[in-house]
């Protein structure tokens, strides 16, 4: 069997645990192949994507800040990516064209169901912070499972307003300056920004207005315990880290590239946790 290649494209990308994740599955299923981290500057993204077929890649994942740019560059998109205008998974088709998919939202929902089983999507409002590719996917997935009031706050207010106009109800934009007020009555807050990621400033968000049974989710997974999650735990709130979303969203891509539908289990989680950079 010919070895197949895949990887993750981002800037920066050195923090990514996706190589350990897919490497674990490759080893478990004894598949000849490799999954590598590809640091790509925004100005080089198109050239790199077009080179994937010639370099023998079956596809790749796309992470910040490239998800929306990749959507505009691929040749085909699936229904989820088309609705969201963002791509996190690219598959090289047999004819060498690129198909973009988006599995972020599904990954978060499955992780929430496992980590916060008492949370009910239709109960109360949800606050999403950020308006990039991951936020778009998460907003779509939350609406799909029945959330009827989604509040969106982004550091650039205009971007949040544009996204709310594009999606329509149940999405409503809130000014970044009033993000803490938007927490009132919410059952869930999801941070999709880079704040709190290794090398970035912490997210400034006082959780005082979040109800005592609220759930705090941070899709950042490097570090696994962000200041936001540490604050949530100190207040007795349910804190959901970003690793589970990463694990669940990866399944579809692996299946497309390597021909095996893998399992998300504790062995995988421990393998990925063990890959944390110093």
**Number of structural units classed as domains:** 2
Reported for the largest beta sheet, the result is: 6 strands, mixed
CATH fold group of the largest domain? Rossmann fold
Question: CATH homologous superfamily name of the largest domain?
Answer: NAD(P)-binding Rossmann-like Domain
What does this structure look like?
By secondary structure, this protein is of the alpha/beta class. The chain has two domains: 4-102 and 246-273, Leucine Dehydrogenase, chain A, domain 1 (Rossmann fold), CATH 3.40.50.10860; 105-241, NAD(P)-binding Rossmann-like Domain (Rossmann fold, 3-Layer(aba) Sandwich). The chain is 35% helix and 18% strand. The chain contains ten helices and twelve strands. It has helices spanning 18-28, 45-51, 67-73, 79-84, 104-115, 133-144, 157-167, 227-234, 243-258, 266-273, and strands spanning 4-10, 33-39, 59-62, 76-77, 89-92, 98-101, 126-129, 150-153, 171-174, 188-191, 215-218, 238-240. The strands form two sheets. A six-stranded mixed beta sheet has the order 2-1-3-5-6-4. A six-stranded parallel beta sheet has the order 9-8-7-10-11-12, sandwiched between helices. Helix 6 (133-144) links the parallel strand 7 (126-129) and strand 8. The model has no long low-confidence stretch (mean pLDDT 94).
Strand-helix topology:
Blueprint: E1 4-10, H1 18-28, E2 33-39, H2 45-51, E3 59-62, H3 67-73, E4 76-77, H4 79-84, E5 89-92, E6 98-101, H5 104-115, E7 126-129, H6 133-144, E8 150-153, H7 157-167, E9 171-174, E10 188-191, E11 215-218, H8 227-234, E12 238-240, H9 243-258, H10 266-273
Parallel strand pairs: 1-2, 1-3, 4-6, 7-8, 7-10, 8-9, 10-11, 11-12
Antiparallel strand pairs: 3-5, 5-6
Helix pairs in contact: 1-9, 1-10, 5-6, 5-9
């Amino acid at each position: 069997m010919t070895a197949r290649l895949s990887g993750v494209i981002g800037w920066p990308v050195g923090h990514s645990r996706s190589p350990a994740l897919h490497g674990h599955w490759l080893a478990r299923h004894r598949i000849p192949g490799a999954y590598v981290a590809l640091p790509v500057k925004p100005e080089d993204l198109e050239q790199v994507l077009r080179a994937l077929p010639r370099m023998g890649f079956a596809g790749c994942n796309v992470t910040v800040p490239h998800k929306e740019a990749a959507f505009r560059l691929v040749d085909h998109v699936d229904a989820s990516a088309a609705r969201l205008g963002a791509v996190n998974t690219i598959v090289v088709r047999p004819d060498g064209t690129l198909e973009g998919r988006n599995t972020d939202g599904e990954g978060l929902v499955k992780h929430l169901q496992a980590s916060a089983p008492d949370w009910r999507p239709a109960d109360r409002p949800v606050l999403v912070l950020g308006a990039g590719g991951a936020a778009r996917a998460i907003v779509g997935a939350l609406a799909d499972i029945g959330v009827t009031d989604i509040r969106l706050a982004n550091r650039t207010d205009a971007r949040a307003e544009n996204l709310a106009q594009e999606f329509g109800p149940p999405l409503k934009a809130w000014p970044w300056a009033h993000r803490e007020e938007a927490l009132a009555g919410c059952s869930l807050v999801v941070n999709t920004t880079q704040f709190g990621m290794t090398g970035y400033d912490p997210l400034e968000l006082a959780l005082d207005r979040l109800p005592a049974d609220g759930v705090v989710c941070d899709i950042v997974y490097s570090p696994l315990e962000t200041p936001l999650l540490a604050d949530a735990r100190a207040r007795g709130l349910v804190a959901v880290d970003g690793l589970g979303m990463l694990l669940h969203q990866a399944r579809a891509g692996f299946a497309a590239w390597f021909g095996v539908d893998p399992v998300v289990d504790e062995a995988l989680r421990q393998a990925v946790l063990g890959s944390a950079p110093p």
